[in-house]
Amino acid sequence: MPTTEDFEGVIDAILRLQDTYEISSGQFVDGSFSKASNSPRMTASDCFEIGRYAYENGDKYHALMWLMESLASLELEGSKHSVDTILLHDYLIYAADDQGNPRHALNHAKALLQLSPTNQKTISRINNVINWLNKEILEDNEVLISQGQPIPSQFALPPVKNKRLMKRATTQEFKNYESLCRGEDVMPNPYKHTLTCYYSTVNNHPLLLLAPAKIEVLYKNPDLFLYHDVISDAEIEIVKGLSTPLVG
User: Cα(138)–Cα(75) distance, rounded to whole angstroms?
Assistant: First the structure.
């Protein structure tokens, strides 16, 4: 049976793939992230567990997007909810506010009050939350006025802000790493027009006279080469067969 560590490892992998290959949470949810085939649609509960895990680990960026996906999926599930709606709105209050969306957080707080109209403990807590959210909104309005920007209507929610705040994600090295994983060219190559492919016998080496090495020049200064078809598929299988028993 999968362990908690396995479960959390899968979530970490999903979030890493999502960022590296620029796959939206919506593509993961509806299974359309692969051109080869579609995966089964994720449930509201699936999305909630990813969002909750991200939130509990301080990753408010992924938490907000996955909790929002969970809420959207609830509407498709109809009356057969796979997640506690009250708990979902509770997480969304804090995730939305942490990412700079006090108006959206206020909306979730009001929804939570409607879902728990008789729970005095919840009512008292959420009323306190609403009070400090209204305070944040007033402060936000003052900033917008000072910048000469219009104040959002109380009847129309502004677009959700959800900025990726990881420090390493803002460094050029990390951006290059993710771009390279996507197969993008991140380095302008001044020698690109001179790069070639050629066969080589490496000074007429006997083993290469009938089957010369296939060499591709990838870069000059420093020289960088790619050797093609160095070993056959059959040889690869032999190496795999010898090494597999030694793994783990």
Answer: 32
Contacts of 68 (CB under 8 A, 6+ apart): 25, 92, 160
CA-atom Rg of the chain in angstroms = 27
Contact 127, 93 (CB under 8 A): no
The list of the chain residues with pLDDT below 50 reads none
* Cα 153 to Cα 69: distance, rounded to the nearest angstrom: 24
CB neighbour list of residue 198: distance below 8 Å, 6 or more residues apart: 215, 217
Identify which of 135, 143, 133 has the alpha carbon closest to the alpha carbon of residue 112: 133
Could you tell me if 200 and 213 are in contact, meaning their C-beta atoms sit under 8 angstroms apart?
Answer: yes
Which residue bears the tokens 């960022």? Answer: 19
Confidence (pTM): 0.72
Helix 85-98 × helix 44-56 angle, to 10°: 40
The two structure tokens encoding residue 44: 């509201």
